[in-house]
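Notebook entry, cofactor series.
This is the third protein in the set we're modelling with a bound small molecule. For this one the ligand is zinc ion. I'm keeping the input format identical across the series so the outputs can be compared line by line later. Sequence and SMILES below, as received.
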Amino acid sequence: MGSAMKVVHVGEGDPVAVSPSPIAQTIDLLGDRLTVVILRDAFVDHVRRFSDWIERTGAPPAVLTSRLSALLDAGLMERRPRPGAYDRHDYLLTELGLATWEFLVSVWSWQREWSPEGLLQPEFVHEDCGHRGPPELACRACGRTVKARDAHLEVDPATLVLAARSRRRRSSRSTPDIGRADLQFSVVMEAIGDRWSALVTGLALSGVRRFGEFQSILKISPTTLTERLTRLTEGGVLCRADGGRDYVLTPRGRALFPIFAFQLAWTRRAHPEVPVEQLGPLLHHVECGQPLWPALRCRGCDAILERTSVVFEP
Ligand SMILES: [Zn+2]
Ligand SMILES: [Zn+2]
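Returned structure with ligand:
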């Protein structure tokens, strides 16, 4: 992914050179509804043509072009000349693009279970055993099932500040209409679709509850923090506790944990050259003490799932 230093404006001060941290790059890329729909279509339905995505998503061509360019730049897709067609190209997933499959399955599973439009999502099937339905999260090191409470999140405040300060991206609320893709993944993107929301959700998953604690870790303005906490509360991800002083995750919010875990795991894969402590937050599995290397496990036959053994059926 692009690791070049970028000169950006931070607040009202002078321009400073900031290279977006790897996790910030992941949030920017994969925290976008249309991008997730593009990847899903490519992965599930083998869509590879610009015109097919236009037809399926209803996105304006310029918007689709910008998302495909970002996927090309980040190395998730490659463009190949279409055989026999002059000046036409297909967009194909690379190995790195295919490696988002566990993240996509987690987004799909959450959306299917926790959002009103869930039943529009295709059904997930483990071909080897025929089991239909969402898989569970497991630790590759010890094989146990992992819930949010079984993981410890190590946050280096310096990485978080870098994640949030470098190149600001639009928040999901100000995203222009992107057509029918708006109908999909809108709820989950409210929670993971911009850096601040994603970081607040990540900290809440690691057990942070107090306003002041969020603020001191994130070095965020009270106004911005209040706005994100309010949005996440309205979205049913957080709720107020202890007389309104604490923000705790709802069951719906806790269910975002696999998405968060696979975002971090994919980020590590996308940046093999970056030392692990500089990638962003680190997850450990408390029971085995190992860094959490997450996997998906079939609830039907208990096998760890491989990309080639799963299908989505409408
Ligand atoms: Zn473990
Ligand atoms: Zn199975």
